[in-house]
Amino acid sequence: MNAINTHELMQTLGSQAKAASAHMARAGAAVKNRALLRLAELLRRETESLQADNRLDLQRAEAAGLTGPMLDRLKLTPRILETVALGCEQLAAMPDIIGEISGLREQPSGIRVGQMRVPLGVFGMIYESRPNVTIEAASLAIKSGNAAILRGGSEAIDSNKALARLVQQALADAGLPPDAVQLVPTIDREAVGQLIAMPEYVDVIIPRGGRSLIERVSRDARVPVIKHLDGNCHTYVDDPCDLELAVKVADNAKTQKYSPCNASEGLLVARGVAAAFLPLIGRVFADKGVEMRGCPESLALLRDVPGARLEAATEADWSTEYLAPIISVKVVAGVDEAIAHINRYSSRHTDAILTRDHVHAQQFLREVDSASVMVNTSTRFADGFEYGLGAEIGISTDKFHARGPVGIEGLTSLKWVVLGQGEIRQ
Asked: Which of 36, 51, 225, 230 could form a disulfide with 321 if both were Cys (CB 3.0 to 4.6 A apart)?
């Protein structure tokens, strides 16, 4: 497809999305929920056919040399499809916040002033690899009363097209405009350039993928962007801690899945528990083939672990998102040094403390400047579905307009409403 046709295509998608967004903004809760429940039903009914389309993408990816975590991201397993179906149902069961008026206060003049929750309008979503994002984005668009233009990765084009067809069928079956959720049907890279430069149609862009994609979108977009660049997350093992809990959680935070942005990439250990904790977690990581890139003090405590894959950490390791079975390990004096390390090197995504000290936990929650801060649990929980948002459009490490997992509220805005009974300004 040439650039002229791509331009015409994106203009058409934009104008259709803009028109559909007006319908979505006034749609009632029951209608939107009907679409979500219908989508969940279709996902379950069409699991086998969706997997057939997914196999076409997987075959192309394998032929192109993709392996490991990159290939894993492409898969649409029955479990993944069930998870996104459950997300649709969870969203349908949640209250509809569109049209809510909050903070209504009467002023001395007699007028009452508050704020109403309203949809953003049209969001553009640019994402790579994971085709389940198509459903997460679509379901959140429906619940929040927005329209969406989705541009998935070329490696998942068949899966995304199949999923988008189900979304549009669910919208139509519920009496909503199918154009409320549109997938860009071309793998032409020019489509991204067009999508991020259409302020007349698109109100916000959400890139979800690798650093190069997000940097490009942030640099070239002519509309606001909700983004995060990296997921350099940390787990800090405090003194005092429950060693059994700390080993279980630190293991899960790193090895439950290597590819997500909420997997822990750095392990910080208080000096007071390092001699007891590091050999324990070292054995776990050695058994799972996780390479540990440590400071001199941590390497000295890990050197006798059978089969341990050890490397000396460089300065770059402290700020690296590996997305692989590699973790940086550093012994720190205590909670103050851990917080200072995290605030210097982390990507402001998700960081956790494992501790038995309530004061340390509260200090960590207050002082770590990240979108999600956790106590005694795995960073892998930093996820819209796990937070009860039904699904997420992405995780933002910005502080405006949304921060952390972006669910329904992150796809809305507030406008002022003023209620009067004939008051005039004197």
From this structure: 230
